[in-house]
Amino acid sequence: MERTSTRSNKSTRPSVAPLSEDGARRLTIGLLLAPAVLVILLLFMGGLVSGFLRSLGYFPLIGLNEFNFDAYTSILTDNGFLRSFVLTFHIAFTSTVIAGILAVASAMLLRPSFRGKRFVQFIFSLNLTIPHLVGAVGVLYLFSGSGLVSRLATGAGLIDTPAGFPAMVNDPWAIGIIIQYVWKEIPFIGVIVLAILLSVGEDYESVARSLGANRWQAFRHVTLPLIMPGVISASVIVFAFTFGAFEIPWLLGATFPKALPVLAFESYKDVDLAARPQAMAMSMVIAFMSTLMIFAYMKLSRRYIRS
Amino acid sequence: MTSSVTTPPRNRPWRVTGRWIGISALLAFLVAPIVPLFVWSISFRWFYPAILPTEYSTRAWVEVITPHNDVVGVAWNTVLIALVVTAFSILLGVPAGRALGLYEFRGKRVVEWLILAPVIVPGLAVVLGIHVLFIRAGIHNSIPGVMLVHLVPTLPYMTLVMSGVFANYDTDFELQARSLGAGRIATQWYVTLPAIFPGVVVGALFAFIISWSQYVLTLLIGGGQVQTLPLLLFGFVRSDPAIAGALSVVFILPAVLVLLLSSRYLSGDNAAVGGIGNI
Predict the structure, then answer these.
(1) Residue A59 gets which letter from DSSP?
(2) B153, A274 in Cβ contact below 8 A?
(3) CA–CA gap between residue B239 and residue B215 (Å, rounded)
(4) What residue of B is the nearest CA neighbor of A245?
(5) B-contacting residues in A 15-74 (Cβ below 8 Å)
(6) ipTM score of complex
(7) Are A293 and A111 in contact, with CB atoms under 8 Å apart?
(8) Which of B54, B121, B130, B139 to mutate to test the interface with A (most CBs of A within 10 A)?
(9) Cβ(B239)–Cβ(A158) below 8 Å
(10) CA pair distance B52, B48, nearest whole angstrom
(11) What does residue A64 show for φ and ψ, rounded to 5 degrees?
(12) DSSP codes joined into one string, B148-207
């Protein structure tokens, strides 16, 4: 390169005369950021704040001008809400843990080079982009009482009627929902883990092996610590998503208890307007849980980097 | 136990067989939910306990593909919304990504948090509040309202992708073009755009898919007045599995196309993958 400009003065704008260089730089940054930040502030933060005010009972249109915690005390003392919360936590936690473990196993399977690897990797990444809803419909047609798996079980003589098939969709344990999330999130976490595995290479593992570690020890003490930051960051996104996703429990969930997002949506749609602050309070609980996830993630990753 | 350092362990035949059994099981699990959708879409009679349909038919496909039918109109609606949302995400997200990727400034962490938050906080946590605001603004139950609310997941995503692209971008080329006499617009068009183009394309493709697959945001803000493919599909799931199957296949197609077009760029360590958690 002929010019000897360094990276640090990349913001130099030759033609901005009246402003100082620093002022021009600040103006540039401001102008570049303003439209996007404004839209996100208005929509996202606006939605959050408006939901929060409503959850405190502030609703001037129908004459409610005072703040109170009634909605929160009423949902927190409601058995139905608590059952929903526990169920939703179970869905998010179980899905994330199972998907995380299977994703690491899958990435280890797909790491070495073998014939047909490109094809296998394509199929592996296929449902990264397939919408959750389609996966949920597929899981319904596979695992419902008259679904394909039940038909296969009947054909094999294991059961006689659809009623003999264990309830796996719209069931209280949310098995169908968890199957759908695991199906969708294995490739998501797996692709991230696989990228780390490939960039790190197998050298560290080979060293550990040549020093006498067996395969499990080399994996547990060398490979796993290397991929853990990726696994954690992907898992946090998965947990937050599965805690707040609506359409999968809406299709595959039981009538009682309902997943929190479904409960919030239905309370919001309730003809009884008094249920609205409660719906808003529930959506705030979902927002709170995902904020908690972000903090937990920051703390975990920091502790991780230190050690 | 004596360790056999000299034998490369991966060459043992049972290990290779084990790997292939594992890979086959994995792929079977990942493909399994898609299979019944295809079969349902061409079935006519498929009663329990028949493992395959006893009669096949193209009825569902004819109904889905026939022009002037609801489905085609709704599909165009979905495409239109996704295209406009993608265009606005590019228009706002590329400059913001440039600011975040190229510059250090005070308050940058706050801005990064603000842009990361909608990627992690689920849509349902904010859409109820947004609905209240939109009712007051009079844009609920309308296509522009739905487009606006789709920006909540797509714009931060586009910004994150572009911030990653600009972090590896060298502005010296722009300075060289300017010093050689190119104007601002010419520089952006001939120097900047070609350099960031692959990133913009990948970000745009995924922004399109994120909008394409939105369900609850459209359901609430559209208020039944705005129909998109996912809402239509949902309505048929229990009433007519054949149509639901065909619609699912239509619904998947752009997703697979996007993956084919962008698989080169999806190495897993770039920001494009992180946002897929939203689809």
Answers:
(1) B
(2) no
(3) 19
(4) B122
(5) 25-26, 28-29, 31-33, 35-37, 39-41, 43-52, 54
(6) 0.88
(7) no
(8) B121
(9) no
(10) 10
(11) -100, 100
(12) HHHHHHHHHHHHHHHHHHHHT--THHHHHHHHTT--HHHHIIIIIHHHHHHHHHHHHHHH
Chain B residues inside the 8 Å CB shell of A36? 92-93, 95-96, 115, 155, 159
> pLDDT tens digits for A277-290?
999 999 999 999 98
A281 touches chain B (CB under 8 A): no
* Closest among A29, A69, A22, A156 to B51, alpha carbons compared: A156
Q: Comparing C-alpha atoms, which of A275, A287, A296 is closest to residue A49?
A: A287
pTM of the entire predicted model:
0.89
Q: Which residue has the tokens 């001939």?
A: B190
**B261-265, Cβ contacts within 8 angstroms, sequence gap of 24 or more:** B261/B201, B261/B205, B262/B201, B262/B202, B262/B205, B262/B206, B263/A122, B263/A125, B265/B198, B265/B199, B265/B202
Residue count of chain B, please give it. 279
Q: Name the token pair of A125.
A: 């990444």
CA angle B59/B63/B67 to nearest 5° reads 145
Which tokens in the block code for residue A26? Answer: 């600040």
Strand partners, A59: A64
Tens of pLDDT, residues B86-126: 999 999 999 999 999 999 999 998 998 899 889 889 999 99
